[in-house]
Amino acid sequence: MSVSPLSRRSVLAAPLLVAAAGAAAPAAVAAPGRPGAPVPEVLGQSPVDVRRSAVRRGRALPPLQVHYRRDVPVSLAYVTRDAGSPDGCSTRDVEETEQAGVRPGDGWVVVGGRRYDLLQTHFHTPSEHTVDGRHAPMEQHLVHSDADGNLLVLAVLLVEGPAGEADRLLSVLPDECVDPVTVEHVDLRAMLPEQLGAVRYSGSLTTDPYTEGVRWFVLEPRTVSAEGVARFRTVFPDGDAREVQPLGRRELVADPSASRWLRRL
Ligand SMILES: [Zn+2]
Asked: 8-85+92-264: CATH homologous superfamily?
């Protein structure tokens, strides 16, 4: 499938974000995490609300350089968190997702001279990050690690509109407890916006073990088809997103080029 170009018009026309209390935010999403999971200390956790009035314009930030291949196979699998439970193959855990594994060397980013390799990408519904309290229908995370195990995540809010590269994965979505599916000819770069201006902050994994010290880059939203969103919600009818965590003393710092899309939301 070819990639639908993301025109500015399509972004402007798309119903970008919905109120957190609206129908698009399933009630179960409010659960702080997996029942029984240890509650982390609330210090530097993710996701957070991107309150636009609190975003500071960064100066001389090290640029985010992306090196993603444009025609690669990925291995798409349902990530289960309750394999030991008798009905684990049918129970939807809020921390489960559909995840595409990426081969070593097929994607990496460089920030401040440090290389982070792309490990996998996965999805949440509704979005985990909010903007002024509003969710997008979905959010895609692209998880990277440097050689020392330090993590960096690119977050892309997904809004309904023309089909995008994420639809390549959302059209497959293997069931829980079945073998992964190889999806060929995936354009990793097309999963990101053309302009890489981001809102940056220091946070955590949004699932157990909630490891902190993760570098987060929230990028300009991209579009996916309404069918793709609906398909993912069929798998996760109660959602698979963690609720937003207190920002505390942390700062949200934006690249100057992020101000255009931030204003539009
Ligand atoms: Zn995630």
From this structure: Alpha carbonic anhydrase (3.10.200.10)
